[in-house]
């Protein structure tokens, strides 16, 4: 399932995960069934949104993604996230990339 370019944000109905490379994607997808994988979406750094399996373009609601990101950041132990807001999917992606890049170093 080659996807380029990395990094990307993997999106489910209930979570959002920063994926830095193909190995991280493989690890993230390990426990999903084939049926569940058909529902997964991803967001690229340019704000492009796609279905994971078919690579077809899709749309995201910025408010829904913001709420998912806030939820994930809270689960990851971040604070002061209630007032996060983004004007574009690209802006949301860049923020998530910065947060998760900093936490991996």
Secondary structure: elements and pairs:
Blueprint: E1 8-11, E2 16-19, H1 22-29, H2 34-37, E3 41-44, E4 49-51, H3 62-75, H4 89-104
Antiparallel strand pairs: 1-2, 1-3, 3-4
Report on the structure:
The chain is an alpha+beta fold and 105 residues long. Helix content is 40%, strand content 14%. It contains four helices and four strands. A four-stranded antiparallel sheet has the order 2-1-3-4, sandwiched between helices. The chain is globular. 19% of the residues are buried. The mean pLDDT is 90.
In short:
The chain is of the alpha+beta class and 105 residues long. It contains four helices and four strands.
Helix content: 40-55%
Overall average pLDDT: 90
Strand segment count: 4
Number of helices: 4
Secondary-structure element order, as H and E? Answer: EEHHEEHH
Overall shape:
globular
Largest sheet: 4 strands, antiparallel
Q: In percent terms, what proportion of residues is strand?
A: 5-15%
Distance between the termini: 27 Å
Strand order of the largest sheet: 2-1-3-4
Q: For the CA atoms, what is the radius of gyration?
A: 13 Å
Uncertain segments: none
Secondary-structure-derived class = alpha+beta
